[in-house]
Amino acid sequence: MTFHTLFPGLTLAFIFVNAPVWPESDENSNLKPLLINYCVSGRSELLLDDGSYIYLKENDFCVSEQTAQKEYIFPTRQYQGIKIYFDLPLLLQSCGELLKSFSLDLPTLEENYCGNHKTYINGADSELENIFQKLWRLSEKPSAFHLQIYTLELLHRLLNMEIRPPKTCGFYTETQVEIAKRAAQLLSGDLRQHIPVRQIAERFSVSETSLKNYFRGVYGQNISTWLREIRMNEAARLLSDTKRPIAEISEQVGYSNQGKFAAVFKKQFCLSPLEYRRSKNLGNI
């Protein structure tokens, strides 16, 4: 995560994460700022003041005045995005004339997006996406001038665009999130096992449909797709890091039929298990 202070009271961060958890900086975790989040890729879990959770997926943006949390959860273990922090009293005091010259009324922006529920989440329209992407392209070679200009352009767009009704399907309770995560642990704990979803739903006293909905909300995929990717990624790791026979690896990730395993593996990686192993071995020479 790289931080860029664009104005006193306005900080932009580029987020690059390859981990399930990322701690918030001590400085920001004590703030209660206005926040804008944008998801470039991956999936991010955000905890709200009322104890509920929202999940940003690719091209979603969120405007929030929630307390910044101590850490962020990334269910897919990979995330790229933009986060903008606003300390409005400081920003208005230090840059009030600049904002006024561009007709940027930030208290109105806060009221428009956060007045009712403190959090607004939606997919970015084409114009908003274009601005976020212009900012993102500066992540590798930041230019303070262009970061400032594009951030002001973003604020102008947010203030002048028609505000669509927020997404209503993105909010989940702590219990619903915990059920989804514990189901994921059960399903992936021993990949040789095939545990029926119905059995897991009964264990948590919820319907099978509810469990599937919670799971899709947290992980962004249905259970079968998620579990297949988990199995194939583990198989890829074993093929790369060990010399275990392919038939043994096939069984280790839950496939008694080696031919079916090879077909599923090739569909995900565009290489047969043997070809994948050879390519990795060549790369290590």
From TrEMBL:
Residue stretches making up the HTH araC/xylS-type domain: 181-279
Entry's Gene Ontology molecular function annotations: DNA-binding transcription factor activity; sequence-specific DNA binding
Keywords: DNA-binding, Transcription, Transcription regulation
Top-rank taxon, per record: Bacteria
Phylogenetic lineage: Bacteria, Bacillati, Bacillota, Clostridia, Eubacteriales
PROSITE patterns found in the cross-reference section: HTH_ARAC_FAMILY_2
Pfam family of the protein (one): HTH_18
Protein name per the record: Right origin-binding protein
